[in-house]
Design a protein that fits this description.
alpha/beta; Udp-n-acetylmuramoylalanyl-d-glutamate--2,6- Diaminopimelate Ligase, Chain: A, domain 1; Alpha-Beta Plaits; Arc Repressor Mutant, subunit A; 3 domains; 5-stranded mixed β-sheet; 4-stranded mixed β-sheet; 15 helices; 9 strands; PucR_dom; PucR_C-HTH_dom; CdaR_GGDEF
Length: about 400
């Protein structure tokens, strides 16, 4: 939860400040007030500042004000406040109002009679209060998601006092942005950091729109949010909404990719810790199994639910080594060939021609590799029980990749 431009305009004592244009940006978060004293602001702001423009130290004609608006949009500040009065800026030019409206940049008029010290004090105090409130809201939600509480009734009462309505049934969503290593390997570190920050901000803004007024948890490319989901119909709608958003987003993000895991539906507050565990398992499947297109719901996991529930990792490793160990060792020493071939064969239901097309190989090459796989592992791919073992072993391999 953060202070917005709309919140600033509603603060006691600031009634004489009025929005003149850019209503679309009223929900922009305000990180801090900044008084512009130079001709430009681009090199003096980091983003999300509420910028106050006076004519005291620099003349502000129409051209300069339009320049400030352009820089404000480029640097993604929260909004512009123009101080008006008889001494410096007499009025806000109509061209500036039109440009601010078109850009969705909040443009606020403040009379010089309203002292800046009162304005900055009111905003500073509100920022502290909102930060404390946000921390408390995050703490309550994190406790519910981890099961770290003694009395659910007390925690829900605290949530209600903080303006969080948690009554009802929910679906937990976990998201993870991956691929930053490739960006750092190819580009300037500072440039990549700025790019990642921009992508994180954009994703966070969209997720907050869906979070039903509840805090969005996480940072640095990892997010957790709650979506209302009283039944399977609502859960399906949530999945479709996320899938529709993810497909074009991931095309634009490349080489970055956002993976998403959703819990089952209809979890009351008492079961949110279980829901978070389900979302984590679904996220792991979304990351490891490319056929899921970066998104997975817990209900879609099938036998993966059983594998994820095995707490003794050594049991899974032993099963994998027992069934496919010779292939893993072969590929380790000679390069990946047999495991990708087995996986392609499995995905194509034993169709050698389709597996060859998937691997971009000649059918005879795939046939030879399949024979080699059977010889090394002592498995018969035509045997139903052996195929079952292979399928499970491949899932374990993917989960551990």
């Amino acid at each position: 939860m953060s202070l917005t431009v709309a919140d600033v305009l509603a603060l006691p004592g600031l009634e004489s400040m009025r929005l003149r244009a850019g209503e679309a940006g009223l929900d922009n978060p305000v990180r801090w007030p900044y008084v512009a004293e130079n001709s430009g602001i681009a090199e003096w702001v980091l983003g999300s500042e509420l910028v106050f423009v006076t004519g005291i130290n620099h003349p502000r004609d129409e051209a300069n004000l339009l320049q400030l608006l352009q820089e404000a949009c480029q640097r993604k500040v929260a909004g512009l406040v123009i101080l008006t009065g008889p001494a410096y800026i007499q009025a806000i030019p109509q061209r500036l109002l039109d440009a601010a409206h078109a850009a969705g940049m909040p443009l606020i008029e403040q009379p010089y009679s309203l002292k800046m010290v009162l304005v900055t004090q009111a905003i500073g105090s509100a920022l502290i209060q909102f930060e404390q409130l946000g921390r408390s809201r995050h703490d309550v939600l994190e406790r519910l998601l981890t099961g770290d509480f003694q009395s659910l009734e007390v925690l829900l009462h605290r949530a209600a006092q903080l303006g969080m309505s948690l009554n009802g049934h929910w679906q937990v969503v976990q998201l993870q942005l991956e691929g930053s290593e490739s960006l750092f390997a190819q580009n300037d570190t500072q440039q990549v950091e700025a790019h990642l920050a921009q992508q994180h901000d954009g994703i966070s803004r969209r997720l907050r729109q869906w979070s039903a007024g509840l805090p969005l948890l996480g940072r640095a490319g990892n997010w957790t949010l709650l979506l209302p989901a009283p039944d399977a119909v609502a859960a399906l709608a949530n999945r479709q909404q996320l899938a529709t958003w993810l497909k074009p987003l991931n095309l634009r993000l490349a080489p970055l990719k956002l993976f998403t895991g959703l819990s089952a539906a209809a979890h009351p507050p008492a079961r949110l810790a279980q829901a978070q565990d389900e979302a984590r398992q679904a996220l792991a499947a979304a990351r490891r199994f490319s056929e899921r297109a970066g998104l997975c719901v817990y209900d879609e996991l099938g036998v993966l639910k059983l594998l994820s529930g095995v707490r003794d990792r050594a049991l899974l490793d032993h099963f994998l080594n027992e069934r496919l160990g010779p292939l893993l060792r072969h590929d380790l020493h000679h390069g990946p060939s047999l495991m990708p071939t087995l996986e392609a064969w499995f995905h194509e239901n034993g169709n050698l021609m389709a597996a060859a097309q998937r691997l971009a190989l000649h059918r005879n090459t795939v046939t030879h590799r399949v024979q080699r796989i059977e010889a090394l592992c002592g498995l018969t791919l035509d045997n139903a029980y052996d195929r079952l073992d292979i399928g499970i072993a491949l899932m374990i391999w993917r989960l551990s990749a």
